[in-house]
Amino acid sequence: MLQEKQKVVVIGGGITGLTAAYYLQKEADQSGRPIEVTLIEAGHKLGGKIQTVIKDGFVIERGPDSFLARKKSASRLAVDVGMEDKLISNSTGTSYVLVNEKLHPMPGGSVMGIPTQMAPFATTGLFSMQGKVRAAADLVLPKSSERGDQSLGQFFRRRLGDEVVENLVEPLLSGIYAGDIDKMSLMATFPQFYQVEQEHRSLILGMKKTTAAPPVKKGEKKKGVFLTITSGLQSFVDAIEAKLKPESVIKGVKVNSVEKTEGTHYSVILNTGEELCADSIIVATPHNVIQSIFSRYSMFDHLKEMPATSVATVAMAFPKEAIKKDIDGTGFVVSRNSDYTITACTWTHKKWPHTTPDGKVLLRCYVGRAGDEAVVDLSDDQIKKIVLDDLSKIMDIDMAPDFTIVSRWKDAMPQYTVGHKDRVFKLKDSIEHKLPGVFIAGSSFEGIGLPDCIDQGEAAVMHVLNYLS
């Protein structure tokens, strides 16, 4: 006798939802469990912010361009869908911080701005002597007595002082989250720093003890910490999608609402008027979309207040001779103390040589961050002029780019403000009790990097399988 199929609906076709649909279908195929998966995506293609432009021999990422190699879930998934031969590490080189019109090399041995080697920190021009002395106070300061969450800014300013925070820590951390470090949650972003301080008292000494550099054999080139796909990250998305049953993917259709029906079943109501029945649901959309889908359930109301920052990436292609001041390195971040609009720039042709034809240069800049988002709404031409003016001051560029690609991401960077982790825990607990079988995942909750989102997709699959059992 045939078992009745258990129906799982995955809402949202970004990397989190795509991962969940893939691993659910894989489990059903391999175990013979009667699970029917349906993935619904409001847009006309999957992958969310993962978008690649292939143009004139360039490989240009509109959204994320890579992922951390030490977080294994992304490379494991790439291997699983047949992309192993396309995985490549970044080329290593000097990274810089732009402060007061000057590029300063990132101090050797610094981990997210925390020194683990004293000599490079003592000799850098990034900080004044007073700033260096204040940072050294970390060596004698007691550990924090703070037991709840606190802002990244509060934590790092206490340990290292304002100057180190503003000229090194803040450009690095806000570069990841496009956020305000005086509002961002320590426990939701970098709880390991709090743990190091609590265990070792000094953040500097603790990081020195716990951060062992991987051994490099003589003659062996240092390996980059990032990975990407040579054919572009969109091809990674395409490879995952190709593994899904075509009939299981619905694109260009929005979910208007989810209603709990009799027993433990749910009705997923689409904007086409169609209703899908589900035994379990994974919701992998941005937090504001989740709130609108479940607007009748008050437990989701606080998601309306969760901030998100708008950013844009600006890719510019040049002939090599356009760059009069060629700097040896892979890119730079920008201190807020500098009079620049761009927040960071990757010399993509150096960091990822496969992306750029011989004799060409590819610069990828970022604009927009918490408190400075208006630039994202300017026209392409205005953004192009602002970015080119900034780059020209640094690199002495005397030619117009061959082409420019501006990619805007409105409200795309969820902000994990103080208390975020507790709010997410309470929300998931409420969902478990009031909407059993519904699971939320994605960049709004437990990490914004590709591996973090993939991890959440995999975790949601395990929750669904356990629930359906």
TrEMBL record:
Residues 15-465 form the Amine oxidase domain. It is an enzyme of class 1 (oxidoreductase). Transmembrane segments: none annotated. InterPro entries: Amino_oxidase, FAD/NAD-bd_sf, Protoporphyrinogen_oxidase, Zeta_carotene_desat/Oxidored. GO terms for molecular function: oxygen-dependent protoporphyrinogen oxidase activity. Keywords: Cytoplasm, FAD, Flavoprotein, Heme biosynthesis, Oxidoreductase. It is found in: Cytoplasm. Belongs to the protoporphyrinogen/coproporphyrinogen oxidase family. Coproporphyrinogen III oxidase subfamily. NCBIfam families: PRK11883.1-5 (NF008845), proto_IX_ox (TIGR00562). PANTHER family: PROTOPORPHYRINOGEN OXIDASE (PTHR42923). This is Coproporphyrinogen III oxidase. It comes from Rossellomorea pakistanensis.
